[in-house]
Design a protein that fits this description.
two-stranded parallel sheet; two-stranded antiparallel ribbon; alpha+beta
Length: 139
């Protein structure tokens, strides 16, 4: 599931955050794309969803509820995340990996016409197994 980057920016309004957290309730993997401008990461929100404690969520026009986040957050983009504090506490929750690899165009990969289809065919069984394991462990 993809989340809006705005939920993880500083100074986010509580009601919007609660609604976005409701969307993420049953997710296993949450990807957060770069916002287009370099926003400071809300360390409070990262702590909230990675701390192992229950969070409050509410869908618009519905009663609120609590749940324990059980998803992995993946932030991606061209620039490194902007984090105000440089202490060990926030960095113990984050793992930064620079992606410096380039991916070949199909014409560079042995002229395979449907390169991504071929890649999915090679890895599809493992991806499906990962999805099914997650389904079996969901509440």
């Amino acid at each position: 599931m993809t989340s809006e980057a705005s939920i993880f920016k500083e100074d986010q309004e509580a009601n919007v955050t609660s609604h976005e957290l409701a969307r993420l309730r049953h997710a296993r993997l949450v990807t957060v794309p770069e916002s287009g401008r370099r926003l400071a990461l809300s360390e409070e929100m990262v702590r909230k969803v990675s701390g192992g404690e229950e969070v409050f969520a509410r869908e618009f026009y519905h009663q609120g509820y609590v749940y324990r986040p059980n998803y992995t957050l993946v932030f991606y983009g061209s620039d490194r995340l902007k984090i105000r504090s440089q202490g060990d506490a926030i960095w113990s929750r984050l793992l930064y990996r620079a992606v410096t690899a380039t991916f070949p165009k199909p014409s560079e990969e042995g002229n395979v016409e449907n390169y991504w289809d071929a890649m999915l065919a090679a890895e599809g069984d493992q991806i499906l197994g990962w999805v099914l394991r997650g389904r079996d462990s969901s509440p």
